[in-house]
TrEMBL record:
Residues 1-19 form the signal peptide. The keyword Signal applies. Keywords: Signal. The lineage of its organism: Bacteria, Pseudomonadati, Bacteroidota, Flavobacteriia, Flavobacteriales. This is DUF6705 family protein. Pfam families: DUF6705 (PF20448). Residues 1-154 form the DUF6705 domain.
């Protein structure tokens, strides 16, 4: 009886496993630069795992700190392997997940995602554009605060990183949820700022 249960269990495991088709971050980066990238990349459609084969993401992992516009920033970046936001996602990626702690000039916390689970940080990586890694951030969505964050390690100093935030221009503003929109200042700077690895 034990032998029959073992064989049935083994067969179920084999049937439930799908072969993983691996692509690379470089392939998807190249795809994004094609003139017809909006039409998709047919040669990459069956890929189930986008892998960081050259360990390019490793340079970003760690804790980074900096100051800008009277705010103190602490950003923790963690490399995740074979990561899916949803169990039903067709493709898993190696990507960076970020967490932030932002304080005002008096040291008061104005934003933190440090204790949030990976899927709820609202700050995660997408892919490279040459030397720059592109992440997406959502802060106060009701005030249209979402956009792309571009991070790049300095060529001359691997402990120095530049960060630039490009806020999305589209979205529906709900004045009831963001009454101070005319004076709202985004959490991240829209000019380049420098962060130092700790």
């Amino acid at each position: 009886m034990k032998k029959t249960i073992f064989i049935l269990t083994f067969l179920c495991m084999i049937l439930s496993c799908k072969a993983q088709v691996i692509g690379t971050l470089e392939q998807f980066e190249e795809c994004s630069m094609r003139p017809n990238h909006d039409e998709g990349c047919p040669d990459l459609e069956n890929i189930t795992y986008v892998k960081d084969t050259n360990n390019r993401l490793d340079q970003f992992a760690g804790t980074w700190k900096g100051n800008y516009g009277g705010k103190q920033y602490e950003i923790q970046l963690e490399k995740k392997i074979n990561f899916k936001y949803f169990p039903t996602s067709a493709t898993a990626w190696d990507r960076i997940i970020g967490r932030m702690l932002i304080k005002d000039s008096s040291g008061n916390i104005i934003y933190t995602s440090m204790n949030k689970p990976d899927k709820d940080t609202n700050f995660s990586g997408d892919n490279f554009q040459h030397r720059v890694y592109v992440m997406h951030f959502v802060g106060n969505y009701d005030c249209l605060e979402s956009g792309d964050v571009f991070i790049e390690i300095s060529k001359n100093n691997s402990n120095e990183m530049k960060l630039f935030y490009s806020q999305d221009k589209d979205g529906l503003l709900n004045p009831d949820k963001c009454p101070n929109f005319s004076t709202f200042v985004s959490l991240l700077p829209t000019d380049k700022m420098t962060l130092t690895k700790q």
